[in-house]
Specification:
single chain; mainly beta; Neuraminidase; Immunoglobulin-like; eight-stranded mixed sheet; six-stranded antiparallel sheet; 57 strands; 2% helix; 40% strand
């Protein structure tokens, strides 16, 4: 939401302090030391349980081989596993806080933590090698290379009367200090900077640097200034790469300004930078505190989970997928089982050459306004009502090049592309995407008697209810006692499994990896406003006339969505001249989305879906493909409000009739996923056995039947049931329920 809030904390609230040590361990925060007031430093340790906003002052045991850490500021405090590592800082040698006698430290402590809450105590590790020189206001990070597995702590820069830019490495397993040799241009000496690890890179931003020409290390009373320079160290190759130089001009304010004493935090692959101060040592009264928040997307987002079905009707789907952290939106596409004809005579619109992105490994910096309901595209923060979240780009560029080289210089822009929404109309802006590695489209054969299932989840409680609002497609043969389907499910974290509504999984007929397909966002330099009407068409859709060859079948854009859900009733048709992607070249024109015609979904038709996440670096790889079928008119809906009551030797399964019966219900069938050799060969292909068939809306599942149940471990262990209803036309869609098991119970199954 980009909204600051002030939590109501309680407990042993610590006094305000500066230059303290700070680590985050799950939902708790540990704060050590810092300056309470001028000349008076602290060595107190506080723990904040952020889930309850409860502060507690903790008293670790003193080390067996020395004294506990003395009061200090400007130290580093780093977390790895269940231990925090304290290094260096600045102490006051004088007992009189008004008479500050600074003493730089290079002592090293280890603090062992208890699981969840509390600490064990301090220890002083015995280290080998040459200890880093005393310093304060340095940075320390811990990195563990995947293929080696030995965690290492890296200390960079700091202050000891003059600023430093030396790099030190501590092997935590052997407790050996060393100075690694690095390649590339080492950043200027600095203090009060930040260093954060994302992937295998340590990103260093800002700080105080020498004012003298050439960046020589200053004398103790030399001049220094704040910097906005930005570099990273590849921790695998020990090579420094400069992203923003100290002398780089930024007249358009598209980069974070010079600052020191700021804070930075990595969330996933995104780096957030907040606040700090700017100024020169010789002009203290000219220093200003920054109140701006920036973020850096260091790489394109990962592929989302497969698209999952919440409900289907004769002409629409309600879909969802798992959220991807720190993204701006999602590009949803569909592929029609029945070929869709091209649309002739729709003009195209080109994309300006200005780009904010480098194609491979590039980073994109954006300023993040706080408390603003509507902001420029690089954040895609959208002011929209809750009933819809569809954002449609109107300029798109498609590229077939998959090996584009990153620009040597970072390009950053902030186009004024604002999106607002009124009633059912979207006022869209000029944004788009650029896609490489165009997908290879092949016809997919589907078998008969396929079921799209609505799925809820139940925990192992005495009595639980699931109420999936569901009406999905296709039929199940009433003569079959075993049904095989491939299912992928999602779990609800907000309901704790007691009552789950619309938390569904999909039945996929086909799953294809789209990991190799990547695309990139390319914002336009100008914003334009148009209107698209998203209301459902009242007329019956007409079938496409002539079939199109399978090689001409295309992925069509449904839209760009702010959230991880969508209601799909239409998609955009491509004009005839852009349908054959094989004939496209780099920079070719593609149509303006506002001018494209929309195609309604058809009843009883199979559609394939894929989704990709979008951040400042572009559009990430597409998810695996999911396949759903719109409902056929006249079949019953899915049963709802499933309840499970557990007894000693059986469980009682009950449900409510479908909201839309479309005639008289002749019978219900309940199915149980069972163990089989087929599951061993393909764990994602569930095998179901019918355990009930009759007119009642309840049944008993015996202990003997449960002993043969398959426990699905795709996430939390669960036993899977399906229930469907039959009328005069046949069986409608099934409601799937995942009955969550604890590890002890599931281990005995």
């Amino acid at each position: 939401t980009n909204q600051w809030f002030l939590p109501a904390v309680r407990g042993d609230i610590p006094p305000g302090c500066a230059a303290h040590g700070f680590v985050c361990d799950g939902t708790r925060i540990l704060v050590f030391g810092g300056m309470v007031e001028y000349g008076r430093y602290s060595n107190d340790l506080y723990e904040l349980q952020a889930s309850r906003w409860l502060w507690k002052k903790v008293k670790p045991q003193a080390p067996s081989n020395g004294s506990p850490p003395c009061p200090r500021l400007g130290h580093s405090f780093s977390l790895y596993g269940n231990k925090c590592y304290l290094f260096g800082g600045l102490a006051n040698e004088s007992e009189d806080s008004n008479n500050n006698v600074p003493r730089y430290l290079n002592d090293f402590y280890e603090l062992e933590l208890q699981h969840g809450s509390g600490v064990v105590g301090w220890s002083i590790p015995v280290t080998k090698g040459i200890l880093p020189s005393p310093r304060e206001s340095h940075t320390a990070i811990v990195y563990c290379r995947k293929d080696v597995g030995s965690p290492k702590m890296y200390i960079f820069g700091g202050m000891c009367g003059c600023r430093l830019n030396d790099l030190w490495e501590l092997d935590i397993e052997t407790m050996t200090w060393s100075r690694p040799e690095t390649k590339g241009t080492v950043p200027l000496p600095r203090s009060l900077h930040t260093a954060n690890v994302i992937g295998n890179k340590m990103y260093v931003f800002g700080g105080w640097v020498p004012q003298s020409a050439g960046g020589e290390i200053s004398a103790p009373d030399g001049e220094w200034k704040c910097t906005g320079s930005f570099s990273y160290l590849n921790l695998d190759t020990a090579e420094w790469i400069g992203l923003i130089s100290d002398c780089q001009e930024d007249k358009s304010n598209l980069l974070p300004g010079p600052r020191a004493g700021h804070c930075a935090v990595a969330v996933g692959t995104r780096l957030y930078i907040w606040s700090g101060r700017d100024g020169y040592r010789k002009a203290w009264n000219n220093q200003v505190c920054c109140k701006d928040l920036w973020y850096l997307d260091t790489e394109r987002p990962l592929a989302p989970s497969q698209v999952q079905l919440i409900r289907a009707t004769t002409n629409s789907f309600q879909l969802k997928w798992d959220e991807v952290p720190t993204v701006e939106g999602y590009l949803l596409q569909l592929h029609a089982d029945s070929p869709v004809p091209p649309v002739a005579g729709i003009p195209g619109a080109g994309v300006p050459e200005t780009s904010v992105l480098s194609s491979q490994g590039g980073c994109s910096l954006h300023q993040s306004p706080q408390s603003l309901p509507s902001v420029p595209y690089p954040e895609m923060k959208v002011d929209h009502p809750s009933q819809t979240n569809n954002l449609i780009p109107n300029k798109v560029q498609v590229s077939l090049s998959s090996n584009s080289k990153a620009e040597g210089k970072e390009k950053v822009a902030a186009p004024e592309n604002k999106v607002t929404q009124e009633t059912m109309k979207n006022h869209t802006d000029a944004t788009g995407f650029k896609e490489s590695n165009a997908p290879s489209l092949l016809p997919v054969c589907t078998s008969s008697a396929q079921t799209s299932a609505n799925v809820g989840e139940l925990h192992d409680l005495d009595k639980q209810t699931v109420n999936p609002d569901a009406s999905v497609s296709s039929t199940v043969s009433s003569t079959r006692t075993m049904v095989t389907q491939q299912a992928v499910k999602t779990e609800s974290s907000s309901t704790n499994g007691a009552v789950v509504k619309d938390e569904t999984s999909l039945t996929t007929f086909n799953s294809k990896s789209e990991a190799a397909e990547t695309a990139y966002v390319m914002p336009s330099t100008r914003a334009s406003t148009g209107q698209t009407n998203d209301s459902h068409s009242s007329r019956a859709p007409q079938r496409p006339p002539a079939p199109v060859k399978s090689r001409d079948r295309r992925w069509y854009d449904v839209g760009i969505f702010k959230n991880n859900s969508a209601v799909v009733s239409q998609f955009y048709l491509l004009p005839e001249e852009t349908l054959n992607i094989n004939s496209k070249t780099e920079g070719a024109d593609v149509p303006d989305y506002r001018l494209l015609k929309k195609q309604d979904l058809f009843p009883g038709t199979v559609y394939r879906f894929r989704v990709a996440a979008i951040n400042g670096c572009g559009v990430g790889p597409f998810s695996k493909i999911s396949e759903f079928k719109t409902c056929i008119p006249g079949f019953p809906g899915a049963p709802s409000t499933v309840k499970i009551t557990k007894s000693v030797d059986c469980i009682h399964l009950s449900w409510e009739p479908p909201a839309s019966a479309s005639g008289n219900i002749l019978e219900y069938s309940a199915y149980l996923a069972i163990r089989s050799t087929q599951l061993q060969e393909n764990p994602s292909q569930l095998v179901f056995m019918r355990i009930y068939c009759g007119l009642k809306t309840s049944c008993i599942v015996t202990a003997a039947q449960l002993s043969n149940a398959h426990v699905d471990y795709t996430s939390r262990p669960a036993i899977v049931f399906r229930i469907s209803a039959k009328n005069e036309r046949g069986y409608g869609p099934a409601t799937q329920v995942r009955w969550l098991q604890d590890m002890k119970t599931s281990g005995s199954k």
